[in-house]
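Lecture notes, structural biology module. Today: joint structure prediction for complexes of two components.
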Amino acid sequence: MSAAGFPSADFLSADVRVPGRGLDLRLSLGKGDTLAVMGPNGAGKSSFAAAVTGTLPGARQQVEGVIRLGERTLLDSSQGVDVPTHRRSIALMAQTPLLFPHLDALDNVAFGLRSSGRSKTQARREALGWLEKVGAREFAAERPWQISGGQAQTVALARALATQPGLLILDEPLNALDVTASTRMRGILKELLARQSAVLITHEILDALTLATHTAILHDGRVVASGPTRELFTRPPNVFAARLAGLNLIRTGPEALAFRAADVVVSAREPGHGAEARGLPTGAQHFPVWARALEPRGETVLLRAEGAGGEVAGSEVNAEADVSLVAAMDASPGSPLWFSVPEGALRRYRPAS
Amino acid sequence: MPGGAPTRSADGGPGRSAGRARTRREGDLPDRARLNGVPGWMLLAAVLGLAFILVPPLAMALRVDWAHFIPLVTGEAALDALSLSLRTACLSTALCVLLGVPLAALLSRAEFPGKRVLRALVLLPLVIPPVVGGLALLYAFGRFGLLGPPLRAMGVELSFSTAAVVLAQAFVSLPYLVLSMEGALSSGDARYETAAATLGASPALTWWRVTLPLALPGLLSGAVLAFARCLGEFGATLTFAGNLQGVTRTLPLEIYLARESDPDAAAALALLLVAVAILAVALAHGPWAARRRRTGAR
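The predicted structure, tokenised, for the full assembly:
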């Protein structure tokens, strides 16, 4: 898929192939923008990060393609250009903070500054400023093992930002954090990524929506959907985007039909006359389906079904229903059911591609 | 971990309590001694093993003529040997660090064909008899050896000199340092180095500021092992460097020589050697091992 819909003035443009890992993708990013990269485990998100930073273990020579950052060409395999990691000006912040255990928080942040030739005093002064920005100044003298995971991750962010990289890659930075810490970290990221060109690898749609102007979705090493984040998840072009957004997507010729699984009202009988009386919304669309699988999710059950007729015939349709309701219907794989979707919850549109 | 009062908790079959009783009799901190699931019979075997290590030096200490200990170890020949041993062991250890650390770094980090074979070859001095090692050194660096003539052309005469002692000691000790350092490098997390690179640190800077500090405990324990091995070197030294007082006669050679002519001196010097070795190990292992445990805890 082309990078259509992305700003034309590409700051980062990456066209990378890693044959050994089945990776083949083209991604671009405008200056100061944040691009979210999403997709299931094994889709190639981390391999992409490693290819762009030049840290693919043991297989660096296997990265093919062209990577440009601003005016610089970092990789051009046909020309034999392959800039080493430390000269790429791409900082990587991983899932785990990886703070150097033999240095305190301040010297961790000062590390990159010293690498770029600043004196010890100067580097430490600037590092203190960065710790201040992420609200971790009080931990300056602490060793990494003395602070919590959330605190360590903020220090790691300060360390990555302190080098003022051309590009910052964040590989699931909130994954290992508890709710409180990740909420706080998301706020810090929102503020500090405003002017920083960044790639945010995540599996949380919330992170993409709050932090990234654009999103690309990977599947099996390829970009299967990309575009402005909000657009991508409100009018998903295909099932990959729809699944991440928790939407059912039905293709009906050139048109698409999207609705949330949680908006579906499930009933065992055909909603004919008097449907409203049984609690079904007025003006709802009704779809006949076969139940395929029941996925308990605490208070609710995700009902996976297959369309049995009409617009949804043959499509996978999911509904989220109350546990007691599903139990009362005695639904099991193969049961015929009716999915009703209120008119307002149904979106009809022409997908971008 | 259930903190607080440990050993007296409600567990404990007959075997366990017997084992506990024994540890309590031996250990000076009974409340902290616990078998933690190690079978009781192993304790017996372990105590035997420990005794096997400790009884001989103890027997030697008992044999020493303590009244004359100081004059015995401060004789001219003894002092010559001790000073030569300390000087050469220090130099050899430095040589091991200089040659062994890059070797360990390559073995643990680089990828190249034949790496496994190379790793096995590095262990060669460890598995061949020291006398054979000395002989091999003689054929390589000796007056009529492979490299003898070119070395002599440069004005370097190695065999039967103090330099030869250093070479012999370094030869037998190098594997200890390489093994220990490679272990430290391999068990270390290479992702720290990746992190350093993405922060703009060149490979050289990453080595000095990340890799080496993190592997320092391993390097130090390797150096201590190498130093101790250097101090005890006998066979290769005798074969390659000879036995000349003040030049190549190290403490072990002096002890062996004195064994027949002056058994009292031999025992005293032997005990001195044991004391120096224990001191070296304690100096390097005490604080560093404690620190490693602390950093490793999280």
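Point to remember: Chain B touches chain A through 24 residues (CB under 8 Å).
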